[in-house]
Amino acid sequence: MKLNGAQIVCESLIREGVEVIFGYPGGVLLPFYDTLLQYPQLRHILVRHEQGAAHAADGYARATGRVGVCLATSGPGATNLVTGIANAQMDSSPVLAITGQVVRPLLGKDGFQEVDITGITLPITKHNYLIMDAGDVARTFKEAFHIATTGRMGTVLVDIPKDVFTDEAEFQYPAKVSLPGYKPVTRGHPAQIRKATELINRSLRPVIIAGRGVTLSRAFDELKELAEKAQVPVITTLLGISCFPENHVLSHGMLGMHGLAHVNMAVSHADLVIAIGMRFDDRATAMVSGFAPQASVIHIDIDPAEIGKNVRVDIPIVGDSKNVLRELCKLIEVNTHMDWLRQLDTWQHEHPSTAIRDGHDLLPQYVISTISDITDGDAVIVTGVGQHQMWSAQHYCYKKPNSLISSGGLGTMGFELPAAVGAKVGRPDEPVWCICGDGGFQMTMQELGTIAQERLAVKVVIINNGYLGMVRQWQDLFYGRRYIATPLSGPDFQKIAEAYGIRALRVTERGEVEPAVRTAMDHDGPFILEFVVEPEENVYPMVPPGASLADIIEPPVRQTLGAMPNFNL
Amino acid sequence: MTQDQHTMVALVADRPGVLNRVASLFRRRGFNIDSIAVGHTEQKGVSRMTIVVNGDEATIEQVRKQLDKVIDVIKLSDITESSIVDRELALIKVRSTPETRSEIMQIVDIFRAKIVDVAPDSVIIEVTGDTDKIDSLFNLLHNFGIKEMARSGRLAMTRGSNL
């Protein structure tokens, strides 16, 4: 069957089970979009900026575990994807980015809207392709999907010149891929698993540190079985949150720079760290030389290059978390670790990191914890980056697997709104709450247009403190409270909402939080809730940069409360 | 930690951009390449890179693992500890006068090198050998005045049948 390049792209996407494309058209994509009319089973969602397309595809991929597809035209369209691609790749998100390219004869001639996007994205993709022949399209897509979804998942970019879309070629979708240089190891080495078993059985003060790899390999049940059988407390990284139900008695929450105090203490006193699908990011470990000083380390990860990269490892196990945990569960002995678990409870009691100050002030922590209560920990939470992200990590009780979507590795402000678009498209029947700061929201708020056009019932929460809060916090704590470039005026978010035809409420009092959250939840459609919170609230606990996990700054008894900066709102 | 020189052989898919992928990886991760030599192999569609890299044990392990992750790298071997034949080719243009020419020729003979071009005031010497041999020849010729030098970077192959 002879088809043109654009048809082959669509046929390939359908064969890979793609249902949605987040995209933005442009000159070189005209033939592709024209072809897309013939494929109504491929839903196209028009974003308002290509960065939104990449984040939406990423959010979709994180929410569903399936490949998120984004599409942009050549030149500026392609470069606008770059932040989203880097963000997805850093957090091992299976995303396929398709870019249009100038016609082949113009390649390398600086033609209109030409950019070397495969060159640009080389260090921020798992792999990328420039297709120079319509006959290569099907094979390339087969490989791209295979690479994105196997081993350590990641982002693949495929660049397609306009005349490759229009050229014809014989179409047959390949049944198999042939990539002799790509053979990810998914089964853990039995000898290593045995050694790990011995260490786990012998340990007196073990902790599990679970990361995003657990979610990516859907090893929720296996993790639970391991934790329960050996009675090991479960700690998560930021992206590990929700891989283990937080209402479980063995769940202890997040470690790291803004980890809970008792969790960081536990890691610092542990004699064994069982690290699963995490990569010892510096925000999680704090100063590496002071990380878990008394512990042996078992590191389970699908990416061999992560083992020994940041932290010295005693027993490496390369493999898929689900497979490795299943094998481990068979071998480990039932244990109780009664004294150790009791010690954690004591620490938690003595250092209640998630306690919220009483009073009338509208505290951001109170907002998040109210949303947690009212949604019963059952919503999909999407966050940006900064203070609101850390409060969302600390104060929402995630009961459902894979229910936090957040930008971890790259730390991309503005990720939240477009990612929530993708999450809601991927999980339309579940409540999706997008928690934003007033800074990040203003970076990508144009995607309200997408939300309105597609009638996506995303509940948008803006934690408005009038500052770029996390940077202000560092200026407060480490730069003598010299605030520069952090006070931030915003538009009237109520009017912004109105302009997009989206209902909204502004909340300024603690007493109004609960009814407002209920109103938003019960409303059939998107909703924007703006909380005008204490402007100079800091995130605690905090491990200062350059310190080790044990050096925790806990909240001062009484914080100095500054006034809201005075702007012409 | 001690810095050691490692010789790695990467069989890579003969596709546009492969050298770029490898070079970009070294730059981004801060690895130091001493030399890299690329060429065809006996297999169609497969190129061979001989990479000489310097670093401590942990760095070298990262180099190995990160190179292995490049999809177009089909096979990677660190052959530093193996029994290998390694060669480099150098072309050295040396200043020469009628008075020094015979002395230069003597040195060239001792090193089993060749003079491949003669001009009124210089000669071009072609030499193959391991890195030490080329370095020694270079040092001996230094006094005559070296006008130009080009080195190929190391090529290496394990002895016998094991790669």
User: Which stretches of chain A are low in confidence, meaning pLDDT under 50 for 5 or more residues running?
Assistant: 558-569
Label the structural class of chain B: alpha+beta
The name CATH uses for the topology of the largest domain in chain A is Rossmann fold
Estimate the strand proportion of chain A.
15-25%
The biggest sheet of chain B amounts to:
5 strands, antiparallel
Structural class of chain A: alpha/beta
CATH architecture of the largest domain in chain A: 3-Layer(aba) Sandwich
Any idea what the CATH architecture of the largest domain in chain B is?
Answer: 2-Layer Sandwich
| Largest protein interface, residues of each chain | A-B, 18 and 22 residues
- Major β-sheet strand ordering of chain A: 3-2-4-5-7-6
The oligomeric status of these chains comes to heterodimer
How does this model look, in words?
The complex is a heterodimer of chains A (569) and B (163). Chain A has 569 residues and is α/β, with parallel strands linked by helices. Chain A has three domains: 2-169, Rossmann fold (3-Layer(aba) Sandwich); 190-350, Rossmann fold (3-Layer(aba) Sandwich), CATH 3.40.50.1220; 364-532, Rossmann fold. In chain A, 37% of the residues lie in helices and 17% in strands. Chain A is built from 22 helices and 20 strands. In chain A, strands 3-2-4-5-7-6 form a six-stranded parallel sheet, with helices on both faces. The radius of gyration of chain A is 24 Å and the shape is globular. Chain B has helices at 18-29, 57-69, 101-110, 131-141; strands at residues 4-13, 32-40, 46-55, 73-78, 84-95, 114-119, 122-129, 146-151, 155-158. In chain B, strand 2 (32-40) and strand 3 form a beta hairpin. With 163 residues, chain B is an alpha+beta fold. Chain B is 28% helix and 44% strand. Chain B has two domains: 4-78, 2-Layer Sandwich (Alpha-Beta Plaits), CATH 3.30.70.260; 85-158, ACT-like. Chain A, domain 2 (Alpha-Beta Plaits), CATH 3.30.70. In chain B, strands 5, 6, 7, 8 and 9 form a five-stranded antiparallel sheet that branches. Chain B has a four-stranded antiparallel sheet with strand order 2-3-1-4, covered by helices on one side. The longest helix of chain B has 13 residues, at 57-69. At the A-B interface, loops of A face helix 1, helix 2 and strand 4 of B.
